Amino acid sequence: MIDIIKHPEYNNYELVKSFSDGETGLKGIIAIHSTILGPAVGGTRYFHYGSEEEALDDVLRLSRGMTYKCILAGVKYGGAKCVLIAPNKDNIKSKEYLKAYGNILKQYQNFYTGEDVGMNQDDIEELAKITPNIIGTIAKAGDPSPWAALSTYYAIRGALKFLYNNSSLKDKKIIIKGLGKVGMELVRLAYQEGAILMVYDINEDRINQALEFFPNISIIQPEEFYTKECDIFAPCALGKDITNEVANTIKAKIICGSANNQLVSDMEGIILFNRGIVYVPDYVANSGGLINVVAELDINGYNKVNVLDKCKKVEEEVALILNESKKTNTAPNIVADLIAKRALIK
Ligand code: NAD
Predict the structure, then answer these.
(1) Cys-Cys link to 287, which of 73, 174, 191, 249 (CB 3.0-4.6 A)?
(2) Is 90 exceeded by the pLDDT of residue 176?
(3) pTM (two decimals)
């Protein structure tokens, strides 16, 4: 296996450990970035990486991102992540494979993990039979996506308030890319408030479903995402939509969606800022999923009202970040990272 200790970032983490199990083919890396503010949380990703170095980079980046996300969401947890290196592109895991992984997790009781890319609800339920540090089972917090959509909705309100001094989505032109679990719920929330919606998904069934539920929406073509004038572009599919070219040309006034890792790099956030386009850091917008899942760890038990309150607070958090960005002449993605870094050294 790869020599983790040689990675230049290794010392910035509390723990980085690879593991494997010859019999089942299990192979993975756990990274615990920080437990300064509380036990570490972060999903398990199952992915066919091009190399072990790629898997290591991913787990380091994602676990640090979880620490920042927890801080900005106001939950007293730290960041961690586990990546499982899939032997091929099939998403098939045997019970023995999951059992071997569950037994590894038992050794890290200050790390709570749940669903991420490549893991499904059945995998999570299976792991929960083996080890107690599993979050997001159906019996507890359940599906995080409606909450990720809700926090994204409040993040949009925060950005609208900042730009127009009015947080209402009514009559605002919104492009939503991706009509999956989060995107479709965001369409519902925006639709019921009277937004003018232009949506798209590569999956035609999702488009037809959206047209059936929300007859007044229109369908936009992918080549129009960045050329059409609109108030908000909401990326709700996969990451890396905001390339250098997109940052330099996009016509939207606000970018705020649920997708993780929307910016190819920090530089794209700076380009947007210099062009006067309001970018809401993705991990702040989509934090409702995390807020919901950690609520099940509360000593008083899962409380839906508290989850709702915390999701609503995302509107204020976004306003705070954007105002700080304006005051300090710093791009909002950089401001959000700085807020998180400062919280860690307090
Ligand atoms: P999903 O898989 O249910 O939906 C993604 C949708 O995007 C699918 O319908 C897919 O067909 C579509 N899509 C893929 N490529 C596309 C393209 N090029 N153009 C248009 N549509 C495309 O996923 P989800 O749970 O809705 O998550 C959406 C995003 O939000 C992801 O980036 C995810 O990481 C992030 N996120 C999700 C949650 C959650 O709780 N589900 C929480 C935080 C962040």
Answers:
(1) 73
(2) yes
(3) 0.93
Q: Provide the 10 A C-beta neighbour count for residue 88.
A: 8
> Above pLDDT 90, what percent of the chain?
89
> Mutation test of ligand 1: which of 70, 81, 188, 236 has the most ligand atoms closer than 8 Å to its C-beta?
236
Alpha carbons within 13 A on the beta-carbon side of 122: 6
pLDDT at residue 1 in the model: 67
Look up residue 134 and give its DSSP letter.
B
Please name the residue whose Cα sits nearest to atom 25 of ligand 1.
Answer: 181
Tell me whether residue 99 is one of the annotated catalytic residues.
no
> For residue 77, is pLDDT > 80?
yes
CA of 194 to the centre of ligand 1 (A): 23
- Among candidates 109, 105, 102, which has minimal Cα distance to 129? 102
Residue 245, both tokens = 């070219």
Main-chain phi, psi angles of 343, to 5 degrees: -60, -30
DSSP 148: H
